[in-house]
Amino acid sequence: MDIRNKANRIRLLNFSTPQMRAFHFSWFAFHICFFGWFGIAPLMAIVREDLSLTQTQIGNTIIASVAITVVVRLAIGVLCDRIGPRKTYTGLLVLGAIPVMGIGLANSFETFLLARLAIGAIGASFVITQYHTSMMFAPNVVGTANATSAGWGNLGGGTTQILMPLIFSGMLMLGVNAAFGWRLAMMVPGVVMFFTGIGYWFFTQDAPNGNFSELRARGELPEASGENGAAQSFLAAAKDMRVWALFVVYGLCFGVELTINNIAAIYFFDKFELTLATAGLIAGLFGLMNIFARTLGGVFSDLFAKQGGLKGRVRWLFIALVCEGIALVAFSQMHVLSLAIGIMLVFSLFVQMAEGATYGVVPFINKKALGAVAGIVGAGGNVGAVGAAFLFRSESLSYQQGLFYLGLTVLALASCVLLVRFSDATEAEEAKAYLDAVGDDVGAGALSLR
Known about the structure:
Elements: E1 10-11, H1 18-37, H2 44-51, H3 55-83, H4 85-102, H5 109-119, H6 125-136, H7 142-173, H8 178-185, H9 187-203, H10 212-217, H11 227-238, H12 241-271, H13 276-288, H14 293-332, H15 337-361, H16 370-389, H17 399-413, H18 424-438, E2 447-448
Parallel strand pairs: 1-2
Helix pairs in contact: 1-4, 1-6, 1-7, 1-9, 3-4, 3-5, 3-6, 3-16, 4-5, 4-6, 4-9, 6-7, 6-16, 7-8, 7-13, 7-14, 7-15, 11-16, 12-13, 12-15, 12-16, 12-17, 13-15, 14-15, 14-17, 14-18
């Protein structure tokens, strides 16, 4: 689809343009979704005692929390193409708030598992975030815009690890016991999600020139395709080998991040015999790297594109993945707390830069089926998380061993990046689009405060 008037700069403190409002609302919405999606993770040591869960059962709930997202992400991209990101995001936030608040009603492993399964659907918010920023920003900054919005959204994984134990402690100070405290604490992210959805409806629009319905009424956008058209869009993306290569690649980076978000607090709690609050704080550092790390991945993607075109974007993605795998193997071998924290931060840096680099490539695979491509690749992250979760559900395999094998897997499969190639015609077309987008801003940075 041909969207006009995309922004060629990211002016962080400018809230007057539809491009920047979409940018800020999309990352904030994704951040809040992460808050709801993984809000229970830093409290698992308490939930484990309350519901008498085994390691295998905890592993199954981790799988449930990310498995359903695979299906929803595949569908949500096509839905964005049909009704636009504004309506799609609003619906997901408002409906997703229900199971987040409802998990407090769980009183057994089975009901807790079902609640985490339902909550997992809000992980599809990532696809809408990337779709919306791709609609709003030009080729010279789209990598940076996608990476920053997703990174600041992923930051929710870090703030959740830090805030939820504090919220839980606040509940205990009100006089409730631990069993009721974790249930009451989960009401907080659910309520915030609901009101964020209302704000998304009133303060954003689908594209720079208006909502999809308005653009179609003016003839600036093709009519929404029916079921056959949606299926054709999905099939066009599904037939492209590059899409599935990126599907695997995203599983190696975002899938790993989701896994760490789920196990980091309990890993540090058990291995280093820390308090729940301290373990949550350290685990939160992993996610807090998103405040700049994923943005760096997108910035480098745009810089590599300036020098090497689309091949440059792919080359940078490969470098980031290899560095991630090496750092993960090193992290798995740490037995001293201070060293474990330091290596974890290096590992986090490359995980998130690889994610930013992946979605620096995605917008150029198939512009006519952008939603389907973004959905399939995004689903790959959750498939990776499901696969990784099996390493951590076995009673015979320690978390440390699981991390080691996961690092080796990243190194072994990083070569999938090399399957992502572009024709000479596409390279030339995108090189011209890049130069046209830069326009009068040659030499200026992609990110600015005005």
